[in-house]
Amino acid sequence: MSATDGLISFEMRGAVALVGLARPDKRNAISDRVIEALDAAITRARAEARAAVIFGHGKHFCAGLDLGEHVEKDAMQAVQGSRRWHEVFARIERGTIPWVSALHGAVVGGGLELAASTQIRVADATAFFALPEGQRGIFVGGGGSVRAARLMGAARMADLMLTGRVASAEEGERWGLAQYLVAEGAALEKAVELAAATAENAPMSNYAVLNALPRIQDMSSEDGLFVESLMSTLASGTPEAQERLRAFLEKRAKRLDIPGERAR
Ligand code: 1HE
Predict the structure, then answer these.
(1) Active site residue 113
(2) Which residue, by CA, sits nearest to atom 15 of ligand 1?
(3) pLDDT at position 262, please?
(4) Mean pLDDT for the chain?
(5) Between 247 and which of 47, 73, 219, 253 could a Cys-Cys bridge form, CB atoms 3.0 to 4.6 Å apart?
(6) Domain 2-199 part of CATH 3.90.226.10
(7) Does the annotation mark 133 as catalytic?
C-alpha cells in the first residue's frame, strides 16, 4: 500500500498535485487513517508540486468526521484527534504551496473545516454547506471555529450550528465560503486552472500569502503593517523578484488583462 493508504488519490498534472478524498462509499468521511493519508499526500505535494488541488471522489466533497469511529473514542482520544486535524490542516493553510479546493455535494462539518484551510475554494452548483455538529451532540474540532467563522462571520456560523441550516452553493459563495461558483461538474477543472496560475508566481510571494497574510490578521494594525514591510522587503530581495521586475520594465512580462478589453 502506498503512504496514502488507498484512501487518498494522488496524481500530478503539470506543476499541480491533484489530491482526492477517495472514500466515496462513506461520503469521504474523515477517519484517523484518512487524516494520516492526507498528511502523507501533503508531504508528497510539497516535494513534487508548486500548487495543489483537493477534491472528493463520488457525489460529495466530504461528509466530515467519521462518526462511526468517533463514537468509540474517549475524551483523551477525541482531543488528540482534534489536535491532529489542526496539525495536518495547518500544513495546508500555512504551508509552502497554495491549495485550491474543488467543492461539490456535501461540504459538511469537518469537510467544511478542511475546505476552510485551503486558500481558494471553488464550489459547483451542487455544493451545500452545513455544520451539523449540534445535531450530533458535538462541536467543531478541525479548526472551524477559527477558519470557517472568519470566512462567513461568527453570526452565520452560529446560525448554521444552532439551527442545522444548510446553505446552498449560492449562499456559500455570497458568505465567503467559496470565492468561485461554477456550473455542476466544473469545479475540479476550474480549481486546476487556478492552481496552475498560482504555480506561476514566485514561490516567495506565495509563501508570504500563505504565512504572513493569516498571521497579520491575528495582529494589531501597527504590528501587521510592520510585518508587512519586513515580508515585502524579504520577497523583493530575491533574485527571482529582481528578474520579474526587470521583465515587466523591459516589456517581456505579460500585462494584466484589462476588464473590458477581453472581448476586443
Ligand atoms: C458516514 C458519514 C460520516 C456518511 N461518518 N459515515 N457529518 C454529518 O453529520 C453528515 C452525515 N452525513 C450525511 O448527512 C449524509 O451522509 C450526506 C448528506 C453527506 C450524504 O447523503 P447520501 O444519501 O449521499 O449518503 P448516506 O446514505 O447518508 O451515507 C452513505 C454511507 O456513508 C452510509 O454508510 P452505509 O454503511 O450505511 O452505506 C453512511 O453512514 C456513511 N456516512 N457520512 C461516517 N460523517 C473534527 S470535528 C468535525 C465534526 C463533524 O464533522 S460533525 C459532521 C459529521
Answers:
(1) yes
(2) 63
(3) 66
(4) 96
(5) 253
(6) yes
(7) yes
